[in-house]
């Protein structure tokens, strides 16, 4: 599992570390890491380091300081470095002196009332003008983004925004791509799109949430001594090694019952698709047995002969967990199905129509045994019905909902957020949005139900299912749109890929 820490946590860790290590040492370490990554990118994109042109976009804080020091290190490798100071009076003094001493060129730019880089302020000897800054930026082989870091507030100022728009070269972001909200990953205006981001100590929310994850490019975490001091992460990400360790596979002593039997209550005679998809996902996710209970039993049996299918949940037989909701409808028959599942005292993944039913009829909650795990897996619309609009801070909303319902809540989306009632949060950022297709959520329900039946902790069940689901979508799509059936068919290949994956 990889941790993600908030800006406040990182600052607190820095304060603790500074009692042992001078602040300037931390900045050298950070800047050295940035310079190494910049050299790698130059080799990759330009084929050389010495003689290449690097432009540093430098803001008012220590983020700019990191960039300036990195520029000084790059000068020693023969790189031509231009620093564009966006807040000339507040540029990091030691970093600026170091860059100048190393022979870097410094251009000063200030924002104008009309926005853009129309006004420039002379700052140092040489061709200091907004035009010069624009020109070097546009001609750079690599741009280092030191505009703003952990203390970023609001959108980029106009001068920075105008320069960012001109960049065509690869961008190396220092700590995080400027213009992205550090806490939520939200992008509401112009923002840097980084090829790579070098961050310090640990991942921050903006590297893994929403548009921020895309704008960050590849993220390298550099341990400058902070990692030990960071404490419990605010969020976590599952990595391939977690999935490989967690995904249940049969052992020598297992039989079809010992691995957990999952019950599927989904679909209807008129809409059997959901039944087929949820059941199929459960069939592919784990070995053992899947029972289907509902009006689509005949169709399910035709599709998945290995499934034991019955007409009603009451006749389903013994299961260890339920996957309930997709396609059951929001009328009385669906309500009856949900009542049965909630009364059963078994773990359940509650999705789709079952979530709508819960939002319409509060008395359904009373049927639940509070000691038994529940996973709610809404999309944003269902979440809103159940708990109110998600808002910009998805993590905070989902965490509150999980505590409120005393359930694991998985909010679907390009960034899937999974919160446990005790406050733990997992996020899964899909690399693409191929899973945004009708029926894809049904597949996820089946995966979660199967993992619950195997006895996995419900938070881990939901998290592992989300990661596998996104990976199956990528594998199936390979660059072209897919339907949920293709996603479902790719589930075994995705499991195989994780089971073979190296750490
Ligand atoms: N926290 C740590 O342990 C370390 C931090 N370091 C660096 O220090 C950075 C944090 O430094 P600071 O706290 O000085 O803050 P920043 O460098 O993030 O910038 C803060 C200043 O930028 C301005 N600003 C805020 N939002 C802006 C926006 N949207 N557009 C333009 N300007 C804006 C404000 O005037 C603010 O004072 C980190 O991101 C990292 O790069 C590293 O030097 C190493 C260690
Ligand atoms: K930055």
UniProtKB/TrEMBL annotation:
Annotated positions binding K(+): 63, 145, 178
Keywords, sorted A to Z: ATP-binding, Isomerase, Kinase, Lyase, Metal-binding, Multifunctional enzyme, NAD, NADP, Nucleotide-binding, Potassium, Transferase
Sequence positions that bind (6S)-NADPHX: 62-66, 149-155, 175, 274, 327, 379, 442
Span of domain YjeF N-terminal: 10-232
Any one Gene Ontology BP term: nicotinamide nucleotide metabolic process
Pfam families: Carb_kinase, YjeF_N
Cofactor: binding comment: Binds 1 potassium ion per subunit.
Binding site for AMP: 412-416, 441
InterPro entries referenced in this protein's UniProt entry, alphabetically: Carbohydrate_kinase_pred_CS, CARKD, Nnr, Ribokinase-like, YjeF_N_dom, YjeF_N_dom_sf
Every YjeF C-terminal domain range: 239-498
Known catalytic reactions: (6S)-NADPHX + ADP = AMP + phosphate + NADPH + H(+); (6R)-NADPHX = (6S)-NADPHX; (6R)-NADHX = (6S)-NADHX; (6S)-NADHX + ADP = AMP + phosphate + NADH + H(+)
PROSITE patterns membership: YJEF_C_2, YJEF_C_3, YJEF_N
GO function term, MF aspect, one: ADP-dependent NAD(P)H-hydrate dehydratase activity
The protein's Enzyme Commission number: 4.2.1.136, 5.1.99.6
Cofactor(s) required, per the database record: Mg(2+); K(+)
UniProt record similarity statement: In the N-terminal section; belongs to the NnrE/AIBP family. Belongs to the NnrD/CARKD family.
Assembly mode: Homotetramer.
Function comment: Catalyzes the epimerization of the S- and R-forms of NAD(P)HX, a damaged form of NAD(P)H that is a result of enzymatic or heat-dependent hydration. This is a prerequisite for the S-specific NAD(P)H-hydrate dehydratase to allow the repair of both epimers of NAD(P)HX. Bifunctional enzyme that catalyzes the epimerization of the S- and R-forms of NAD(P)HX and the dehydration of the S-form of NAD(P)HX at the expense of ADP, which is converted to AMP. This allows the repair of both epimers of NAD(P)HX, a damaged form of NAD(P)H that is a result of enzymatic or heat-dependent hydration.
Protein's recorded name: Bifunctional NAD(P)H-hydrate repair enzyme
Organism: Actinoalloteichus fjordicus
Protein's gene: nnrD
């Amino acid at each position: 599992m990889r941790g993600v820490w908030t800006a406040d946590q990182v600052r607190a860790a820095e304060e603790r570390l500074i009692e042992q290590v001078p602040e300037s040492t931390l900045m050298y370490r950070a800047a050295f890491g940035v310079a190494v990554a910049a050299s790698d990118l130059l080799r990759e994109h330009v084929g050389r380091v010495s003689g290449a042109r690097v432009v540093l976009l430098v803001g008012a804080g220590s983020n700019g300081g990191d960039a300036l020091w990195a520029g000084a290190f790059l000068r020693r490798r023969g790189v031509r470095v231009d620093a564009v100071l966006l807040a000339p009076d507040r540029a990091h003094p030691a970093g600026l002196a170091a860059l100048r001493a190393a022979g870097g060129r410094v251009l000063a730019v200030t924002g104008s009332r009309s926005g853009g880089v129309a006004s420039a302020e002379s700052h140092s000897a040489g061709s200091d003008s907004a035009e010069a800054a624009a020109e070097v930026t546009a001609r750079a082989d690599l741009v280092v983004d030191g505009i703003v870091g952990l203390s970023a507030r609001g959108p980029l100022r106009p001068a920075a925004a105008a320069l960012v728009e001109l960049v065509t070269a690869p961008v190396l972001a220092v700590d995080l791509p400027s213009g992205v909200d550090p806490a939520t990953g939200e992008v509401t205006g112009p923002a840097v799109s980084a090829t790579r981001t070098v961050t310090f100590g640990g991942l921050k929310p903006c590297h893994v949430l929403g548009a921020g994850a895309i704008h960050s490019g590849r993220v390298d975490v550099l341990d400058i001594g902070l990692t030990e001091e960071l404490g419990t992460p605010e969020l976590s990400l599952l990595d391939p090694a977690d999935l490989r360790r967690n995904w249940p596979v049969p052992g020598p002593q297992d039989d079809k019952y010992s691995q957990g039997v999952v019950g599927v209550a989904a679909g209807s005679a008129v809409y059997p698709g959901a039944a087929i998809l949820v059941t199929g996902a459960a069939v592919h996710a784990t070995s053992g047995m899947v029972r289907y209970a509902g009006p689509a039993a005949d169709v399910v049996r035709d599709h998945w002969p290995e499934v034991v299918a019955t007409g009603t949940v009451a006749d389903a037989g013994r299961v260890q967990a339920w996957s309930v909701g997709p396609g059951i409808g929001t009328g009385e028959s669906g309500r009856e199905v949900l009542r049965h599942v909630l009364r059963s005292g078994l773990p359940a993944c509650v999705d789709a129509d079952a979530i709508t039913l819960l939002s319409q009829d509060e008395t359904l909650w009373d049927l639940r045994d509070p000691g038994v795990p529940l996973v709610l897996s809404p999309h944003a619309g269902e979440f809103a019905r159940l708990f109110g609009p998600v808002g910009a801070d998805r993590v905070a909303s989902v965490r509150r909902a999980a505590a409120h319902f005393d359930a694991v809540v998985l909010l679907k989306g390009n960034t899937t957020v999974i919160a446990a009632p005790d406050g733990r949060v997992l996020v899964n950022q899909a690399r693409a949005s191929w899973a945004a297709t009708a029926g894809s959520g049904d597949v996820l329900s089946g995966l979660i139900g199967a993992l619950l039946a195997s006895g996995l902790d419900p938070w881990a069940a939901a998290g592992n299912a989300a990661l596998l689901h996104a990976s199956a979508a990528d594998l199936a799509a390979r660059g072209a749109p897919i339907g949920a059936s293709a996603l479902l068919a790719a589930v075994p290949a995705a499991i195989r890929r994780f089971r073979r994956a190296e750490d």
